[in-house]
Each structure stands twice: as structure tokens, then as C-alpha cells.
Amino acid sequence: MAHTERLSELIGDIYDAAIDPALWNDVVGRAGFFVGGQVATIFSKSPIAANGHVYYESGIDPEYRRLYFEQYLKLDPTTAGQYFADVGQPVSVTDLMPYDEFQETRFYNEWVKPQGLVDFVSTVLDKSATTAALFGVFRYERDGLVDDETRARMQLIAPHIRRAVMIGRLIDLKAAESASLADTLDGISSGLCMVDGAGRLVHANAAGRRMLDAGDPLFALEGRIAARDLRADRALQDVFTAAQGGDAAVGTQCIALSLTAQNGTHHVVHVLPLTSGARRSAGRSYAAAAAIFIRRAALEQVALPELIAKTYRLTPTELRVLLAIVEVGGVPQVSTVLGIAETTIKTHLRRVFIKTGAERQADLVKIVAGFASPLAS
What we know:
Helix content is 48%, strand content 19%. By secondary structure, it is of the alpha+beta class. It has three domains: 2-171, 2-Layer Sandwich (Beta-Lactamase); 178-296, Beta-Lactamase; 304-372, Arc Repressor Mutant, subunit A, CATH 1.10.10. A hairpin with a 4-residue loop joins strand 3 and strand 4. Helix 15 (316-328) packs across helix 18 (361-372). The radius of gyration is 23 Å and the shape is globular. The N and C termini lie far apart (61 Å).
């Protein structure tokens, strides 16, 4: 019971951070401790541009953080695998490569080992064509490698972090007091509708009202918010009902519900419970159980490396070696840049040749160039 209460309290604080970003660093630290590590972060990085950014963190050494993004991100053998992981899927080092191979890398010996770290478990919160936003937890020697319990705890907490981060990005508040939250939300560009536990509309901002007046993809039927897609509507109604029971009751339902309008445009819906935490006063002002945020979805392109990997069923490490061969040159040069033994590079390269049908390194260059060209056959 004590464990359940602590988890419920943490989930409530996560959702409070959606409307008060000042809470995030503390919440991230507590979420990391729940998962099983002393250091945690919400950050983004790109396997394409080899850059990234830390949004919120707890316990990270500033100097090692600087070194990572300035020098070691491009050497990190786990970056591609973390990016390609499905949203919400916990990923650790051993999910991506043999651990003894990881220990051979420059990244491990120059950045991981000196800090006493042994593992890192992450989950994708959101992803674009070039960049992934992730929540991650570091494991020290005393914590051991990521195990099944760690993964299970990550799966419990990560969906709530994802929902809060995505809603917070829509609100973009510096520090809104919950008592004036409803008034503040009226000014956001995304559509906002507040509903009670039965899904009845109790308040809408200007953008939300315009959407409902248009009746697509959400509309109001006898005062109740509904989606034109029957499956999506059932999911919404279930979330509205669950919201009356508090944050934990909402669970992982409707983290980012996709809706398609009659003209073919795509929209994304997020639901924020208002019956717990600091959000309670805002919900109480309108007798609301939940706030619905809806925005038009941007059309995302598939990243070139991801397309290559999916086409030839390459592992993250095989993809990394392929791209390095194309960009850097021969095996000795790639070995130096990636900090991996030449024998290991050759092993992965042989597998790449088999999967792609290439016979020479020059053929690999042509394959990658063909994907990059819009005129490729």
C-alpha cells in the first residue's frame, strides 16, 4: 500500500510539472529513483546531427554533461538504438549490443567507466525525423545492470512523463499558479476543452470553441464531447470516466490519441486529469475532471538512417558501422573514430554486406546515396 501511495503521489507531481516547469528537476530525480537509479534526465539527441539538449535533470555532473554533448555523443554506440526504439519501450545497453563489446568502446572507457556508471535505461517520449526526446535513468555499479524490475518500473512511470511533457509543451507556461490556470489556458493556440467525468463540456478556450463549432474531428453532442471516429470516442470516454479517480486511474490511456478530420488533416489529442494535485483548484473552478488539448499534427518524414535500417533489417550497431564507413572511410579509420576494435568493425561489416547484398565498401556508398536521392529507382 505504501508503494502504491508513493507511486500515486509521484504521478500527481508529474502532472503538476506539466503546468509548472519549475517542478521538473525534482520530479525527474524522484522518477529516476523510482525506476532504480540515482541520476535521471529528460533530454533530446539526434543520431543524424550528433547533437542534443538537456531539458531537466537531477544529479548529473555538469562537466561530464558538457563532455557528452561536445565530444562523446558521436561516440555513444547506443544513440541509434535509443532513437529507433518504439515510443515507451525501455531500452538498456544490453538490448542494443553485447555488454563486452560495449566495454571495448572509447565511450565506455573514457566517459562511462570514470563515473562509476554501468548502464542506462531510456524510453522515447517523442520523436521527429531527426531527433528523439527521451527520459533516461543512469545505473551505477552499486545498482547493477538494468533488470526486469527496472524495465517494469520504467513502463509504469514513463507514460505519465510523456503525457506531462507533451502537454507542457503545448501550454508553454513559465510558472502558472493553479488558481488562475483556466484563465491562462484560454490564451494558448491549441484547442482546450474542459469536461466533467461524463465527458460533458464545462469550458472551452477560443481555439477549442472554434473546433467544436466546426464539428470536426471533435464535436459536442447534447453537451458531451465526442469524436467522429467511434474507436477514438470510446477511448476518450473511458479516460473521462477514469479521470474522476485521480491521476493513477487514468493510467496509460490516451497518451496521444490520433484523430483524422474529414478533410484528411491529422490531429493529436492529449488529456490532463484535473482531480488531483495542484491542478485540482483549476478543475474545481469549472467542476471539471479533465482538460483536453488538441492540436493539428505536423507531417513527419522518416529519417534516412531509419529507412535504411528498416529496409535491410540492420541492427543499430550495424547501421552505425555502415554510416561510419560511408562518412569516414576504411575499417582502421572507423575503428579510431568509433573507438571499437578493428576486428569488431569487420564482424559487423560482414553482416552488413550479407544483408545489403553489397560486395565492396564502394557499393555501400552507392546504397546510401541512392536513399538520399529523390530520383533513386
